[in-house]
From TrEMBL:
Organism per entry: Kiloniella antarctica
Pfam families in alphabetical order: Lipoprotein_15
Top-level taxon: Bacteria
Signal peptide boundaries: 1-24
Protein's name in the database: Lipoprotein
Record keyword Nucleotide-binding present: no
Keywords: Signal
Alphabetical list of InterPro entries matching this protein: Lipoprotein_repeat, UCP029720
Length: 131
């Protein structure tokens, strides 16, 4: 049983390293994996937590105007290129925004430092993004 647990732990550790490599790729200057009280989460390049919004539809942001001031969209430049999981959507104002698995990504103005997750479950519609 001990050997099985050791082997399982090694396999699990290897899987976690693979996930890190998958997200690091060309997007390492934009999106990273960080640590929080909730475990591993997606962050922007400054280590700030990224969130999704339940009112968004796949590939379309519903957070504009005042909402976007409180929940700033993770804007996308021309590079780096998209991946299978990370794509760019076009917002109502014409700006490009990063999306993870089709869901637009946002920050939260009340998170003050890396690892803060104060927006998780806000009004039941905002959620921390986990890899």
């Amino acid at each position: 049983m001990k050997q099985f647990l050791k082997t399982s732990l090694v396999v699990l550790s290897a899987a976690m390293v693979s996930a890190t490599v998958t997200f690091a790729g060309d997007l390492s200057g934009v999106i990273k994996i960080g640590d929080s009280s909730l475990g591993h989460i997606l962050t922007d390049n400054k280590g700030m937590t990224l969130y999704t919004f339940d009112k968004d539809s796949n590939g379309k942001s519903a957070c504009n105007g005042g909402c976007a001031k409180a929940w700033p969209p993770l804007l996308a430049e021309a590079s780096p290129a998209e991946t299978d999981e990370f794509t760019k959507i076009t917002r109502d104002d014409g700006e490009k925004q990063w999306a993870y698995k089709g869901m637009p990504l946002y920050g939260w103005v009340n998170d003050k430092q890396s690892g803060d997750v104060t927006g998780d479950k806000f009004k039941g519609v905002w959620h921390v993004v986990t890899p």
